[in-house]
Structures are given as structure tokens and as C-alpha cells.
Fold this sequence. Notes:
alpha/beta, DNA polymerase, domain 1
Amino acid sequence: MSKSAVLFGSIGSIAETSDIQRRAYNRALAEAGIPWQWDRETYAELLTQAGGRERLAHLSAATGANLSPEQIESIHRRKTELACAEIASGNVTLRPGVVELIELAKGREMKLGFVTTTHRPNIDAIFEAAGEKLSPADFDVIVSRADVEHGKPAPDAYRVALKALAVSPGDAIAIEDTATSVMSAARAGLPVIATPGEITKGQDFWQADVVLENLADPAGRLDSRVVAFLN
Length: 231
């Protein structure tokens, strides 16, 4: 039986943004006088825990930095401002196959969802950077951190999306880019295609049904395994 919905997960499944986020964190931390500067390897390890505020709080406790909730909020807010400005400036392109998969799904009258637990400014920045290639109107549901009590790897975001779309988990597929986010989709009962980004490709994607470098080749031809998942 053919699937009836495609759910894109974290913004990294849409566009490569992880290193932009890393650099924005480093700038925000430096501005706040916090002596943490994360290289790509360190940030890859940090991404095993979802949620920027949660990562900052965890590191504060683990290192004895004793950051206050107000400091954590301020650093995270500044990181978001910096990252969104770079993303929206056009310094980001959509990952191969995203537009093609959306077009195929629409042609088959499938429902589309963008299921993140990031904050809305990050989502809006992606749409601004994409221009005419991608817009909120392409999706039947968009889930952000404001819509759920628990972020990923909890399954809450996917459950919210499935309920909004009136689709059962077995009738949808999820596209994710981190092991934590794959876990979220799997916990909600969805089959998952993992497309790791530059920073997350070393993670263990054992809960994914298939792991692909991208959804399509450079010419825009969707991977046959992606098409097979829709059938």
C-alpha cells in the first residue's frame, strides 16, 4: 500500500545548517564571555542531545560554569539571531532531492509535513533563504518547539503532525539528519530515511531503515530507495 505522507524532520534534513549553527554558538558564547569554542568534532558530539538550551544547561552543569537560566536564554537567543541572519542571507542551499521529493509527493497527492523541535525563527530563515524553491505553503503541517512539551528524541512532534494530518505512522515516512531525530520518528512508529549532514554523518543511525548521503544525485534524480519507500 502506498504511503500517504512525507514528513521532513529537523531543518538539517532540508538544508545543511549545522556548521552555521556551530559558528553562531561560538560567536554568542564569546560575546557573553564564556570560554567555550566548539570545533566540528565537539559540536558533532553535542548534537547527540537535541535542543540548544538543553545542551547549554547540560554543559553548564557538567563543567561547573554555573550559567543562570537567564544567561542560557540570552546566549541561545543571540545564537539564533546570528544563525538566522546567515541562513536568510542566502548562504544556504536546499539539500539534493528535497525539492524533487516534494514535487513527487504533491504529484501523488500525498500530505507533507515539516516536523521540527527547533524554534520558529530558524524555520522562517530556511524559507527566506529558499525563496521560490520552498515555502510554508508547501506543507500541510509545520511543527516547531512551541507545539510540543518535549523536544526530540521524544516522539511528541511526530505525534502532533500525524494527528494534524489524520495519518497513521505506517502510512508516512520521515526524513531525518541526526540519530537523535531518527529516534524521535522511530519512537512514533514511522519508517525513517536518514540523510546525515556534514557534521552528523559519523553518528550511529541504527534506528533508520536506510541511510543515504542525499535523497537525490546532483542531477536531481531521486534515489531509487526513496521512491521505493513511497510505494
